[in-house]
Specification:
Layout (H helix, E strand, L loop, with lengths): L6 E2 L7 H11 L8 H14 L3 E5 L2 H11 L7 E4 L6 H8 L3 E4 L11 H6 L5 E5 L10 H11 L2 E5 L7 E2 L2 E2 L8 E5 L12 E5 L2 H11 L3 E2 L19 E2 L10 H11 L2 H19 L5 E2 L7 E2 L5 E5 L1 H4 L2 H10 L2 E2 L11 H5 L8 H9 E4 L7 H19 L2
Parallel strand pairs: 1-16, 3-4, 3-5, 5-6, 6-9
Antiparallel strand pairs: 2-10, 7-8, 7-14, 9-10, 11-12, 13-15, 15-17
Helix pairs in contact: 1-8, 2-8, 3-4, 3-7, 11-14
The structure holds pyridoxal-5'-phosphate.
């Protein structure tokens, strides 16, 4: 079937309502810094049940300013997961600080609280747990560690918009100081590129606003100049070294329109997960992802884990699936395996569970745009490929 469409591991769903929303902003007076940015922020924070949201140009930018707002400095260490996209650790390097990798739990692939504790010392300033594949981390335990050691917790929730931890929406910051989202096209909703930081702390919120836009404020009550009566309306102050991490109004219009559909997207993902569960039940080739008690995953990814016999054949399996138009991917190469991190002194073997997970993992297609036919095809090809490999 050479012309069969490619089924990616994840992708955006953009419909005519999204196009209308973007189109109307493109015809308005504001392409950036207009009313849609704060509308998007308000809708995000109320969806997640947090006080404040700051929308920015990417999830990476969101992580960067979250780390700066947290006060992470060159002498600090920040504990994060090794099994994540490099951005979760790079944001620590941007601040001149040192990322410390704490090994994961084998089933959820989330950071293991016991391993966080083992890595805490007096330099530790913050934790960046990552809700891998949209499955919430053990936030209750992480919060206990946070309180005991007086640490800042920044949730890397870039996979997890719409997920739920014992009744609290991820992003509510009930167990943390800040939560970071990404709106890259493969993530739960998209703005093209985009991200956000959510928080319940006013002090962090105000710093995030400054950092997003050059460290400049136009609010008179915040000026360092005492006699504000004598200053003109054009006046503004740059109070710290910020960035241009702004997001545009038309991206936020897309975000608003997408957010309205998020629950529907997740409902469809859950239907697919249930179909996969039934169809792959008790198979001899791989283990399925889990959903822990009391949590609801946003199912950003569907990570299968190869059983022992198939680990050495992963490349072959991957190639065969891709040849058959199944857009599998691997999440993730342990961050510290990358040459840049190796040069900083991190060694292979540091987090054996993350390394093992990486050897076993393949993400198979899971997104709201998949039809029942796509699902059937995906499952059939996966069984065909494994049956073939088994005998070779
Ligand atoms: C996508 C992603 C990011 C970065 O988000 P961008 O919007 O692409 O900058 C950070 N962390 C994780 C775990 C991600 O998957």
């Amino acid at each position: 079937m050479p012309n069969r469409k490619f089924i990616p591991y994840s992708r955006q769903s953009v419909d005519s309502d999204d196009l209308k929303a973007v189109n109307s902003v493109l015809h308005s007076d504001w392409l950036t810094q207009g009313p849609k940015v704060s509308e998007f922020e308000n809708r995000l924070s109320s969806y997640c049940n947090a006080q404040y949201a700051v929308a920015v140009s990417s999830g990476t930018a969101a992580l960067h300013i979250a780390c700066l707002a947290a006060g992470i400095e060159p002498c600090n260490e920040v504990i994060t997961s090794p099994l994540t996209f490099v951005a979760s650790a790079n944001c620590v390097l941007y601040c001149g600080a040192r990322p410390v990798f704490a090994d994961i739990q084998q089933d959820s692939a989330n950071i293991e609280p016991v391993n966080i504790k083992k890595n805490i010392n007096r330099k530790t300033k913050a934790l960046i747990p990552v809700h891998f594949a949209g499955h919430p981390c053990d936030l209750g335990e992480i919060n206990k560690i946070r309180k005991k050691h007086n640490l800042i917790v920044i949730e890397d929730a870039t996979h997890a918009l719409g997920a739920d931890y014992v009744g609290a929406k991820i992003g509510s910051c009930k167990y943390s100081d800040m939560s970071v989202f990404s709106f890259h096209p493969v993530k739960p909703i998209t703005t093209g590129e985009g991200g956000a930081v959510l928080t319940n702390r006013k002090d962090l919120y105000e710093r995030l606003l400054l950092l997003r836009s050059h460290g400049i404020t136009k609010e008179r009550r915040k000026f360092s100049v005492k006699n504000t009566k004598s200053i003109g309306v054009w006046f503004y102050e740059m109070q710290e070294l910020g960035f241009n991490y702004r997001i545009t109004d038309f991206q936020c219009a897309l975000g608003i329109s997408q957010l309205k559909k998020l629950d529907r997207f997740i409902k469809r993902r859950r239907e697919i997960v249930e179909k996969y569960r039934k169809l792959f039940l008790d198979n001899d080739y791989f283990d399925l992802p889990i959903e822990g008690k009391g949590v609801k995953s946003s199912w950003h990814l569907y990570p299968i884990r190869l059983k022992n016999k198939y680990i050495s054949k992963k490349s072959l399996i991957f190639d065969e699936l891709r040849k058959n138009r199944i857009g599998v991917q691997v999440h993730y190469i342990p961050v510290y395996w990358h040459p840049y991190y190796r040069k900083l002194g991190y060694k292979k073997g540091l987090c054996p569970k993350a390394e093992e997970f990486y050897q076993r993992e393949i993400s198979i297609p899971l997104h709201q745009g998949m039809s029942d036919k796509d699902i059937k095809y995906t499952v059939r090809i996966i069984f065909d490929v494994f049956n073939k490999i088994k005998s070779c």
